[in-house]
Specification:
Blueprint (H helix, E strand, L loop, with lengths): L4 E5 L6 H12 L8 E5 L2 H11 L4 E5 L16 H6 L4 E4 L2 H7 L3 H13 L3 E6 L3 H5 L3 H12 L12 E4 L13 H19 L1 H4 L3 E5 L7 H5 L6 E4 L6 H8 L6
Parallel strand pairs: 1-2, 1-8, 2-3, 3-4, 4-5, 5-6, 6-7, 7-8
Helix pairs in contact: 1-2, 1-11, 7-8
Bound molecules: 1,3-dihydroxyacetonephosphate (13P).
Length: about 250
């Protein structure tokens, strides 16, 4: 049985002071032990967040890392540096990194490999653009991103990877994929994972949906059989809103 996973991606938001009040708002509440929770602040906040989240139900994630272990890569951060700050998860290949920083499937595959070698749990993002969906080749795009991005991951490590399907046209637009569209694509992703790793291993891999998730649509998404969790951007920046998402369907 896969445990639901709720992840907040803060992107390039929140100073130390803002982060402090956001995290304090999140940890003052009782959270279900049957779900996993992760927040991914910017690098500058990881140290503080690691201290505040110690001994809580919320784990720490980073938004990116470099694929080399160390060296002359000005401005970059390594997996080991993240481990030192009590980071457990790392988002890899977010569509904003692909779009604004030219990240390729090859780089993404190396990052996932390095993350796993350093005992970080990668959250690998895949997603198609609006033109690709309207051109009806979104399945082909997702398959390519998965197969190329996972090519350095063998089946013994596959269950440590989480896949997040985030259609680019649904990110920050207020336009969520319908729960059926999301469920359909996640089912397709599962069949690819089964082809790559076999049924019993692929059954352990969590697949998330992301793109304009909020407290009003999370329940409908989370009842879909293929959806194991959500990757939340904007709605993870306010503690009361993100708490409602974390406690989906528990609310009276
Ligand atoms: P929004 O929830 O703001 O659409 O962002 C989704 C996202 O990109 C999370 O990684």
């Amino acid at each position: 049985m896969r445990k639901p996973l709720i992840v907040g991606n803060w992107k390039m938001n929140n100073t130390l002071q803002e982060s402090l009040s956001l995290i304090e708002g999140l940890i003052s509440n009782r959270l279900s032990v049957d779900r996993d929770f992760v927040v991914c602040p910017p690098y500058t906040v990881l140290s503080l967040a690691g201290k505040l989240l110690k001994e809580t139900k919320i784990q720490l994630g980073a938004q990116n890392m470099h694929f080399e272990e160390k060296g002359a890569y000005t401005g970059e951060v390594s997996a080991l540096m993240l481990k030192e700050l009590d980071v457990s998860y790392v988002i890899i290949g977010h569509s904003e990194r692909r779009k604004f920083f030219g990240e390729t499937d090859l780089q993404i595959s190396k990052k996932i490999f390095t993350a796993l070698n350093n005992e970080l749990l990668p959250i690998m993002c895949v997603g198609e653009s609006l033109a690709q969906r309207e051109g009806d080749y979104h399945h082909r795009i997702i398959k390519k991103q998965l197969v190329e991005g996972l090519k350095l991951v063998d089946s013994s490590r596959a269950s440590d990877v989480t896949v997040a399907y985030e259609p680019v046209w649904a990110i920050g637009t207020g336009k969520t994929a319908t729960s059926e569209q999301a469920n359909d694509m996640l089912g397709f992703i599962r069949t690819i994972l089964i082809n790559l790793y076999g049924e019993s291993m692929a059954e352990n891999i969590r697949i998330l949906y992301g793109g304009s998730v909020n407290s009003s649509n999370v329940d409908e998404l989370m009842i879909q059989p293929e959806i194991d969790g959500v990757l939340v951007g904007g709605a993870s920046l306010k503690s009361d809103e993100f708490l409602k998402i974390m406690t989906y369907s528990d609310r009276g």
